[in-house]
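Shapes recur. One chain:

:::
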Amino acid sequence: MFQSFVETSSPEQGPKRLADLREVMSEAGLTGFIVPRADAHQGEYVAPRDDRLAWLTGFTGSAGWCVALSDRAAVFTDSRYTVQVKDQTADVFEKVDWPAVSLGDWISGAAPEGLIGFDPWLLSVDQLRAMEKKIGARLQRCANLVDQIWIDQPAPPLGKVAAHPLEFAGEPHAEKMARLAADLKADAAVITLPDSIAWLLNIRGTDIQRNPVPHSFAILHRDGHVDLFIAPEKLTDLGDHLGPNVRTAPPSTLLPVIEALTGSVQIDPASCPVAIVDAIKGTCVEAADPCVLPKARKNAAELSGSRAAHIRDAAAMVQFLAWLDDQAQGSLTEIDVATRLEAERRKDNALRDISFDTISAAGPNAALPHYRVSEDSNRTIEPDSILLVDSGGQYLDGTTDITRTIAIGELGEEECRANTLVLKGMIALSKLRFPKGLAGRDIDPLARMALWEHGLDFGHGTGHGVGAYLCVHEGPARIARTGHVPLEPGMILSNEPGFYKEGHYGIRIENLIVVQEAPALPDQSVAEMYQFETITWVPIDTRLINTDLLTAAERDWLNAYHAETYARVAPHVEGAARDWLSRACQAL
């Protein structure tokens, strides 16, 4: 299987590892050391070698920090991980609500004196600046102290790189390079994000689990040439794909090449490591990663591939859901569910991986938005309870991400009300027409209004960007309070409001949607308007819906969605699965 259920967290090791870290801190003359969940490429995902935060503390979430001081230590996590961080870390680590409390504020209060060390490869320029405002010159660059005590640290990944077919990429990489080079703000731009480089050069890799990207760095020059810094062992299967305008060199030569650049150098302060900026001798120009926005605006081939991938993925989901409804209540565990769903997806020869570890969460585990089932946490799915399944696939032609909340038996009025309020928020975004220029923060409240009216809310964003056979979480746009980037046609986003009652149940309903131009209305006064195209086609469990809470327009939307789901997916399933699909898509 792609997914493993072995428990990777070792909270019992935390106190000893913290003591070892403090010993090397003392030897280096440091009062504290900062450990982010990050690697030198500054993407969201890290390889096992770079998962220093999990190794030190036991916390395995996708975002967080640790600050180790000589007499105190703290783990900083956001609201998605409030419960998880308590379960996965020892008492020697204080638990801090971040970003409500910043690292700079906490450090300045807990350690008003002394030097605070950090690895300059693991902090971005923006992150360092934010801390410097609170801590100032006490921040000191140093070697990574965790690496000095991590005796069995995994080796760097060396996955082979493959060319991404033009039929799915939609644009030759030479044309991308020339197009982006023409818009640079400097003579050259340093690119560190793995998915940016993979998209720019039409390559894919296997260095990061679940994300088809290779570890590498790149410099895009104004003349359209690219210097690619990548381990040569990864390129043996690539043939002549890169072409004459891409020069390759080992990563060890990156800093010397940057130091030798004589013109202006563009960096993205949000993703560029401090170590790279330290090496720039010429003029440093700050601007967004040149690939991030063009990558988010999917072209026709990428959108066509994503739509096709979602239909096949929907067929796998329908096969799975039909099987699930046929099982005796109380006979399955969370691992049984995740295993069966992966087996259904693996029937598609275009599947290359799952897009993230399947969240198969029963009962109170469903109240953990980023729950990962393991052999230790595996829970039996009890009769008359809620099962939340959040999953996706990495296909050659697209990346999928879907969440369905499923009724196992009879559910009470409270659960059905909460599920219906979540559904109302999802429908509100699905039906939305909005003027050009709005960002995710402008429309995020629509997904929460029904919940807010009942005094409820959820702690995560409503939606994230999704790649085209790339990372399932993709910037720069998002539907959230922090979503400041205007939405543009071609962007694929998730639409996934939720509600979580700690210790009891969790609900989330998720479809992927594409920003597109909206047809003009006869009396329209706004020059340009956008709308969303839904590309996820899987029934929503009507057994958890209180129809009295739906408006006529909401009911019409759901009935139309289910009719379209049946029309699109029925030709791809047969027998019991098609019968199940027909029942699940019946109009309310």
Notes: The mean pLDDT is 96. The longest strand covers residues 385-391. The longest helix spans residues 300-325. The CA atoms of residues 38 and 89 lie 19 Å apart.
